[in-house]
Amino acid sequence: GNLMKELLPFSEHPSGPLTALCTDIFTKILLTGSKMGHIICWNIASFLEDSQNKKNKIKEELCWRAHATKVVDLFIEEEKNVVVTASTDGSVRVWHATTGYYFGYFGQARKFELSDTSRLILPSDVNDFPAIIKSESKHTEKKKVKYPLMLDRDK
Known about the structure:
By secondary structure, the chain is mostly beta strands. The chain has one domain (18-128): Methylamine Dehydrogenase, Chain H. It has helices at residues 45-49, 137-140, and strands at 18-23, 29-34, 38-43, 59-65, 71-77, 82-87, 92-96, 102-105, 131-132. The N and C termini lie far apart (55 Å).
């Protein structure tokens, strides 16, 4: 994980070195897990269709904190539309694939309710809600900064 390139996603939390990767069956979505416990969902379909076209970029779509420690494995179950993550914290958790909503963990007493995404709950060790990335433009635009206090050596 420390040898892989560190990505700088558009979400407010840094991802850290990547420790786990997986794609969906059609290789349109790339899921990455990080050393910091984040899961990042990337849309890679247009990039893979024509990687020479500079307009086709890998786009970050969703980012959420899944674990308090390093993600060691993850996979997407497309039929149920869930992502399953495992971490060095010893937990295996289930998440909604397109929203990052938490369904629960393996070994819990209650059954997984995969159809109910209206109840937004989080694991006890995570307090950050999923961030859906709407557009890259707000993050890549250069901001004009005004410097009202400037040193005037003559004064």
